[in-house]
Design brief:
By secondary structure, the chain is an alpha+beta fold. The protein has a domain of 154 residues: C8orf32 fold (Roll), CATH 3.10.620.30. The chain is 15% helix and 38% strand. The protein contains four helices and 17 strands. Strands 1, 3, 6, 15 and 16 form a five-stranded antiparallel β-sheet that branches. It is globular. It starts with a strand and ends with a strand.
């Protein structure tokens, strides 16, 4: 399926300040760019660029002078997600998980799986292994955690969200990742442009590493149930949100609310029963 995506971010900067952005679409076999542009006002020329080899995250750095600053990104791309029967997607024993995936079983800053292991195993230990267990975790979060803007901040962890029972997409993703890791499923945080998300914004989902018909692969999940799985355009992947901030500012700047958009084919199905894999790095 073909999509057009973009965002526009505006800031008021106090003094010469480095900005690092991670807002360009990732590039891999099932997510192919056809065109893209990155424009700054004022024109700051070509940024420093880096693509992380382990994740495919694409970073750009600008030195922004004092005053108003705007960055706008636009891209056109094609998605070819792999959809399979979720009953055919199971879990992998730790001894069989690729060694580069094993770090996604560990606790991280926002995902304290070690602190929630007892709860996770009591609640989900008897669920069918694999995609169905990860789905059960998502269902529990959707049924037991309220989606409420303004209830959390950048310090909120999965442990906090479980106690408060409220949050936004970032918090839903962190809690799902934490519970998956606690029951032995590697999981990682995904930032994305999300088709059919209302209102449009950057969206947080997650991927679990599971064994499907073709072997081990990353499978997409959205515990908020707010976006179409086959319309998630990946930006970045990491242990949690700390690894994939769409903007990191090394100084003082005031930001305006971001403008984010994505358009895709209309009409189109929302995948609810298939297991969807990006087979990304």
């Amino acid at each position: 399926m073909d999509f057009a995506i973009g965002c526009s971010l505006a800031y008021q900067v106090d003094a010469l300040t480095p900005f690092v952005f991670n807002l360009e679409a990732a590039v891999f076999a099932r997510q192919k760019l056809r065109s893209e542009s990155l424009v700054t006002t004022p024109d700051l020329g070509e940024p420093d660029r880096f693509t992380a080899p382990e994740s495919g995250n694409r970073y750009t750095r600008f030195l922004v002078p004092a005053g108003g600053f705007r960055i706008e990104y636009r891209a056109e791309l094609s998605l070819d997600p792999l959809a399979v029967d979720p009953r055919s997607v199971t879990e992998m024993a730790a001894g069989s998980i690729p060694i580069d995936v094993l770090p996604y079983l560990n606790a991280s800053r926002y995902c304290q799986s070690d602190r929630l292991a007892r709860f996770a195993n009591r609640q989900f230990g008897n669920e069918p292994a694999g995609h169905q267990r990860a789905t059960a975790i998502c269902n529990w979060i959707r049924d037991n955690v309220d989606y409420e803007s303004g209830t959390t901040d950048v310090l909120t962890s999965a442990y906090d969200t479980l106690g408060d029972r409220a949050g936004v997409c970032r918090d839903f993703a962190h809690l799902a990742i934490t519970l998956c890791r606690a029951v032995g499923i590697p999981a990682r945080y995904i930032s994305a442009y999300a088709w059919r998300l209302q209102p449009p914004d950057f969206h947080a989902v997650f991927e679990a590493y599971l064994a499907g018909p073709g072997g081990g692969a990353w499978y997409l999940f959205d515990p908020t149930r707010m976006a179409a799985l086959d319309g998630l355009v990946r930006i970045g992947a990491g242990r949690d949100a700390a690894d994939v901030a769409f903007c990191s500012i090394f100084g003082q700047a005031e930001s305006q609310p971001p403008m984010v958009w994505i358009t895709g084919p209309q009409p189109g199905p929302v995948l609810t029963v298939q297991a969807v894999s990006t087979q990304a790095p």
